[in-house]
């Protein structure tokens, strides 16, 4: 019987050889296992051959043996015969089980209390290919170092890493979370020091969450804005590019402290910190003393932002946020007079102005359908091109649906429409960065090239011109070959009511087109 058992074990290992990957290392390992089993079979055969002789010498001839009828291998009873084990074999099995249990206990202890307990590292890479009609350019965007933020080269084409450590288990366990985006995140394009300089920082966000009660959590660090329905991560977006409100209307990131509070269907977030994008309080030069050393002023007024969300049902969430504070304006020193000027057009009366922003958004998600909507309104004192009050307001609508096709499998389709009005006093304010001519020729904001030319022909500087009203529509197809892979294809058309898009031949137009595709691998 023991012989049959060992032979069955040997035979049972052969399918594993057939299914294994035929690499040399695996073949050698399997051959070694087979040799070991063959050796054990020989030893057992020798033991079986010697035991009957010893039994006859001690107890006399054995009783006649009644042979069991052979079992057909096609019978359902095949392989169900009882196996007998010696005491030594049972002891060896117990020792092996005890060793395995010790290893499992050690791994569970390390998972709960060891240095890797509660640690997770996730992220994605998303190489992207973009064709830009106005620039007459087409190229892959991935790990490209750029210190400018445009709607056709923002938070995509990068590596995203999310490193989170939870200290303990349960809802009262504190946690620390850091996200890194070496090329396109907040650090490399937006985070500024006290003098407004961007320092090529790979840090994107860094947050510590400390639960105080079952409903209240203390928050500290570098956080993203509370505004809008869009997220930064490419693998969570339903479009390839971001909308106009996300890119140019909603506030950016903050450094400070805050609290999150939940009760029933309501959730609130509060945060007090520096003005947006500043890792240090802003310092602006206001002049020089008698020795030529700079006289500076610091923005000592913090920014306060808050958000509330109401879960109307399992499918519908309605939320809103606001931000209020004082924002620092760009400044320069007039080379002719030595005087300090403020604002993009040099016409602002002071180094900063009051900033106010509010928005409301909703998300409806049911099965394979998702709808999003958002309305924005913002103002910033002295931040417009002509030194007056900047004002902007906009709307974003998104619709998405997933479906299956026989050949292509799981897919999705998304359409998004955005409009952002930024015409008052020549435009500017918020996330809209104009140059000294009152234009953002890459993103289509500011005064039109024809109005600026006519103004300069009459001895002006374009301060009487109005800013642009911007719109876009994007159409996306999404493919989901596996759980880790997502492929997006987007066509996007942008247009404005002013000549604000710079073309590759040096002329200006009122529209632009993008065609892009993106490969996302999440891990």
Account of the protein in words:
Keywords: Coiled coil, Signal. This is DUF3138 family protein. Pfam families: DUF3138. Residues 1-20 form the signal peptide. Residues 20-47 form a coiled coil. With 523 residues, the protein is of the alpha+beta class. It has a single domain (116-522), classed as Porin. Helices cover 19% and strands 39% of the residues. It contains 6 helices and 26 strands. It has helices at 2-19, 24-59, 87-113, 186-189, 244-248, 449-457, and strands spanning 119-125, 128-132, 137-141, 159-166, 175-180, 203-211, 216-223, 254-263, 266-273, 283-288, 294-298, 303-311, 316-328, 331-333, 340-342, 352-366, 369-380, 390-405, 409-421, 439-440, 445-446, 469-479, 485-496, 501-502, 508-509, 511-522. The chain has a 16-stranded antiparallel beta barrel with strand order 1-4-5-6-7-8-9-12-13-16-17-18-19-22-23-26. Strands 10-11 form a two-stranded antiparallel sheet. Strand 4 (159-166) and strand 5 form a beta hairpin. The longest helix has 36 residues, at 24-59. The protein is elongated and about 120 Å long. The relative contact order is 0.09. Residues 1-23 have low confidence and may be disordered.
């Amino acid at each position: 019987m023991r012989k049959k058992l060992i032979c069955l074990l040997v035979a049972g290992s052969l399918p594993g050889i057939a299914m294994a990957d035929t690499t040399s290392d695996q073949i050698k390992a399997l051959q070694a296992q087979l040799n070991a089993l063959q050796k054990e079979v020989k030893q057992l055969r020798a033991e079986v051959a010697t035991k009957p002789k010893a039994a006859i010498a001690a107890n006399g001839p054995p009783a006649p043996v009644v042979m069991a009828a052979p079992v057909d291998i096609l019978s359902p009873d095949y392989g169900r015969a009882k196996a007998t084990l010696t005491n030594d074999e049972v002891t060896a099995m117990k020792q092996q089980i005890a060793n395995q249990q010790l290893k499992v206990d050690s791994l569970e202890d390390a998972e709960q209390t060891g240095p890797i307990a509660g640690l997770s590292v996730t992220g994605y890479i998303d190489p992207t290919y973009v064709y830009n009609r106005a620039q007459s350019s087409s190229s892959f965007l991935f790990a490209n170092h750029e210190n400018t933020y445009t709607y056709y080269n923002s938070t995509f084409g990068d590596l995203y890493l999310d490193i989170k450590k939870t200290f303990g288990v349960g809802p009262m366990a504190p946690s620390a979370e850091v996200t890194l985006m070496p090329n396109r995140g907040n650090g490399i394009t937006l985070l500024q020091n006290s003098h407004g300089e961007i320092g090529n920082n790979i840090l994107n966000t860094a947050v510590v969450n400390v639960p105080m009660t079952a409903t209240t959590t203390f928050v500290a660090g570098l956080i993203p804005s509370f505004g809008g329905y869009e997220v930064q991560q490419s693998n969570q977006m339903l479009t390839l590019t971001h909308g106009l409100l996300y890119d140019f209307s909603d506030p950016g990131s903050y450094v400070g402290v805050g609290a999150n509070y939940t009760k029933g269907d309501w959730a609130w977030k509060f945060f007090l910190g520096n003005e947006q994008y500043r890792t240090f309080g802003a310092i602006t030069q206001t002049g020089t003393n008698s020795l030529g050393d700079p006289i500076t002023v610091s923005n000592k007024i913090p920014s306060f932002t808050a958000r509330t969300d109401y879960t109307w049902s399992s499918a519908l969430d309605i939320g809103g946020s606001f931000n209020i504070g004082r924002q620092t304006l760009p400044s320069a020193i007039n080379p002719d007079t030595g005087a300090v000027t403020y604002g993009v057009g040099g016409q602002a009366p002071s180094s900063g102005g009051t900033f106010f922003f509010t928005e409301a958004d909703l998300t409806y998600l049911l099965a394979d359908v998702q709808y999003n909507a958002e309305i924005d309104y913002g103002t910033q004192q002295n931040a417009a091109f002509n030194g007056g009050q900047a004002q902007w307001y906009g709307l974003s609508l998104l619709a998405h649906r997933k479906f299956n096709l026989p050949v292509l499998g799981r897919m999705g389709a998304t359409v998004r429409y955005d409009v952002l009005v930024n015409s008052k006093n020549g435009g500017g304010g918020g996330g809209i960065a104009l140059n000294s001519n009152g234009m953002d020729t890459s993103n289509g904001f500011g005064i039109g090239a024809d109005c600026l030319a006519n103004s300069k022909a009459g001895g002006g500087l374009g301060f009487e011109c109005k800013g642009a009203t911007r719109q876009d529509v994007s159409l996306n197809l999404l493919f989901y070959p596996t759980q880790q892979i997502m492929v997006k294809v987007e066509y996007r058309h942008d247009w404005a009511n002013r000549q604000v898009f710079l073309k590759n031949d040096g002329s200006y137009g009122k529209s632009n087109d993008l065609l892009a595709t993106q490969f996302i691998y999440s891990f």
